[in-house]
Amino acid sequence: MTLRTIDEVLRKASFFLRQHQREERVAEWLCMHVLQMDRAKLLASLRDPMPENTQAQLDELLHQHAKGQPLQYLTGQEQFLGRTFSVTPDVLIPRPETEELVMAVEEAIKDVFPGPPATIVDIGTGSGIIAVSLAGTYPHSSVLAVDISADAIAIAKQNAARHNAHIDFHHGSLLSPFIEKGETASVIVSNPPYISQKDWEGLEETVRQYEPKQALIGGDRGVELYEQIASQLPSVLEKPGIAAFEIGYDQGASVSKIMQEAMPHASVRCLQDMNHRDRIVMIVQ
Fold this sequence. Notes:
Blueprint: H1 6-19, H2 26-35, H3 39-44, H4 52-66, H5 71-75, E1 77-80, E2 83-86, H6 96-112, E3 119-123, H7 129-137, E4 142-147, H8 150-162, E5 167-171, H9 176-181, E6 185-190, E7 195-196, H10 197-201, H11 205-210, E8 217-219, H12 224-236, E9 237-246, H13 252-262, E10 267-272, E11 278-284
Parallel strand pairs: 3-4, 3-6, 4-5, 6-9, 7-8
Antiparallel strand pairs: 1-2, 9-11, 10-11
Helix pairs in contact: 1-2, 1-4, 2-4, 6-7, 12-13
């Protein structure tokens, strides 16, 4: 049997994805994944034959992606603020909007604290992208992360170890583990589930079928978890302190009101993302 070259396989894979209305460039990313090559090496190896077993592996991944399986779950990883994170269907796929949340928190810390904050808490850590990123920026801060999903915590621990981030993980709901222990925090940050049940039903099929529903839906109205967090904030957030939350594009006013009512003497403002949509509610006291 004559083996096809990598270039021939790549062209065929791109055509296959185009036929199934999928992004053609995914073929290149999957080739890099199965061949364990970076892009420069892949391009330099286009005339080389592709091993038969590797081609079979690629074909299987292509068919899974054609059915809707996200690329990140097929390769098991995604980039976030320059770091590579492991992802599985137990956690959400990292998104650029959350990168903006982390950067906004870092800017707020510069304005509020003379040095690194003493304690940072990440609520609903998922894959650990927020906690690991902040632990990397503030290695002398105590970083804690909580999630209601034990499976998500397992992935977050892998990512913390991968990036040598020292994080204290807690299995529990929102800020409850810290309230029970009487612990407080200088910075509280979260990208909680904020999609309403109705909006979830209208999401892309690839999201509804493959990403964890528990990490997406925030209740019938989408803001229920913000209400729960707001009721807990006064018991945990120190003064001076910062709390920052990623929100849905249409939740700026409602979440800001929830937080202002819970923290009447704090400064509450809504920040927009790169697409000029409401994306972050920032509380400073």
